UniProtKB/TrEMBL annotation:
Pfam families: ABC_tran. CDD domains: ABC_cobalt_CbiO_domain1. One of its GO terms (biological process) is transmembrane transport. The keyword Transport applies. One of its GO terms (molecular function) is ATP hydrolysis activity. InterPro entries: AAA+_ATPase, ABC_transporter-like_ATP-bd, ABC_transpr_CbiO/EcfA_su, ECF_ABC_transporter_ATP-bd, P-loop_NTPase. The keyword ATP-binding applies. This is ABC transporter I family member 11 chloroplastic. Residues 43-270 form the ABC transporter domain. PANTHER family: ABC TRANSPORTER I FAMILY MEMBER 11, CHLOROPLASTIC, HEAVY METAL TRANSPORTER. Keywords: ATP-binding, Nucleotide-binding, Transport. One of its GO terms (cellular component) is membrane.
Amino acid sequence: MLAAAAAMAVTVPRAASHCFPANTARTCWSCRAARVEAGHSRLEVRKVTYRPPGTEQNLLNEINLSLQEKSFGLIFGRSGSGKTTLLQLLAGLSEPTSGSICIQKYDDTGNPIGLPELLTSQRVGIVFQFPERYFLADTVLEEVTFGWPRQKADLLLKEQLALNLQNAFNSVGLTTISLDENPQALSGGFKRRLALAIQLVQTPDLLLLDEPLAGLDWKARADVVNLLKDLKKHHTILVVSHDLRELYPLVDRSWRMEMGGSLKEEALPV
Ligand SMILES: Nc1ncnc2c1ncn2[C@@H]1O[C@H](COP(=O)(O)OP(=O)(O)OP(=O)(O)O)[C@@H](O)[C@H]1O
Ligand SMILES: [Mg+2]
């Protein structure tokens, strides 16, 4: 029913600023484009430095990070240290000045299999801080199908997206809401669920979340933490957050971003 409604939806192009997997192509690096397969793959960020074009100062300095698939990583650190900047690089919204962002497969004995593969922006979903501020549509259905192909020739793709949508709504527990509902009328927790579902429709290999608990009341925060616990079973999740205590039970690896853009692996100080 949900999938059928989505497949029939008339769509409008989504604004570039909306929280949707970016289509920015990564152009270089020594990796090849490919999808993360099940098994023993890791996201590997290798010596990534970032200096915005036309500026004199690095925002990120030789960042190294490794995160196994279907695990939960958390980056914490002071405001202005560069956490969101790093997420933007991982999502392909800007390009590293140097270094690489790859997926490396390993065998059971820990030896790398083949060459590292490029993590393309199409394989990454990013949910920005306060994603509900970027909702544009009047109904949940329009919000989630914004940007879907409109041509008849794309029918197969649309059907696949509709199927993904059904799965995404199931996995974030949104099946009880009406597709005609205004997204702005949803509760805080349900708005975050919707923002996550929009990303999950694209079946990303890596899900990036910037401050997923920010601005929510205690009940919605607990709700989102439980949801992330569920999503972790099937997705690789990297979160930036100041809410260390609440996310602590989910965290497999954590890093502190220090002022000046240096990342150091460190246990959560809770
Ligand atoms: N395009 C840019 N050009 C120059 N400086 C920038 C640019 N984008 C961000 N900055 C600066 O980079 C630093 C890191 O910003 P960023 O938003 O990544 O920090 P953050 O760790 O996410 O902070 P917060 O916890 O407050 O969200 C800040 O000093 C910011 O002003
Ligand atoms: Mg930030």
